[in-house]
Amino acid sequence: MTVNDRQVVLAAEITTESPDFGHLEPMVDATRRELRAVGLDDPDVVLADAGYWHKRQMENIVSDGITVLVPPDAGLRKGARPGWDGGLYAFMRRVLATPEGRALYRQRQVTIEPVFGQIKFNRAIKRFQRRGRAACRSEWRLIATTDNLLKLHNHRIAAAAP
User: Fold this and answer.
1) CA triple 125-129-131, angle to 5 deg
2) Alpha-carbon span 156 to 73, nearest angstrom
3) Looking at residue 76, what is its pLDDT?
4) 84-118 pLDDT, tens digit each
5) Which of 38, 49, 37, 39 is nearest to 2 (CA)?
6) Among residues 15, 84, 92, 132, which is most buried (max CB within 10 A)?
7) In which residue ranges of the chain is pLDDT below 50?
């Protein structure tokens, strides 16, 4: 799932593989398709957690002019991974160590995580009700759509209040 800075779901896809590794570029591609379908520009920045670290996919996204911030390590690691020194790994560690890099990456925490919290805990949607990949994909997209509709509804109520 991808969201914008206002927690509006832009793209929702499912996969049968459990780790996030290898899914960064497909999600960015899905987001770009959805944005272009409504006449909007590509995102300027992509923020993802460490599980999405995939050097080749990140290089492909950056080559299209999109900034990518993905920590190469989990937050517990203080030093560099042995044998991973240099290149994109070292560059990303340096960027995320700057105040600007940390501030930009922190936005991920207040954009995507609340959406998952809203879906899983507030709405109590913890598993798919239908079976089969196509059925689950349509159900996930419906969940994402209703999340957007709830945001719009709540925004309109708040705007109408005196």
Assistant:
1) 135
2) 41
3) 64
4) 777 888 899 899 999 999 999 999 999 999 999 99
5) 49
6) 92
7) none
Single-letter amino acid, residue 88: L
Residue whose structure tokens are 């995939």: 54
Which amino acid appears at position 25 of this protein?
Answer: E
Q: Which domain holds residue 106?
A: 2-160
Residue 22: φ, ψ to 5°: 95, 0
Give the C-alpha distances (Å, rounded to integers) separating 18 from 21, 22, 23, 52, 80.
9, 11, 10, 12, 26
The C-alpha angle 105, 5, 92, rounded to 5 degrees, equals 20
Tally of domains within the chain? 1
List, for residues 89-98, the tens digit of each pLDDT value. 889 989 999 9
Q: Where are the alpha helices (DSSP H) in 50-132?
A: 55-63, 87-97, 99-117
Q: Which of 115, 136, 135 is nearest to 10 (CA)?
A: 115
Q: What is the pTM of this model?
A: 0.86
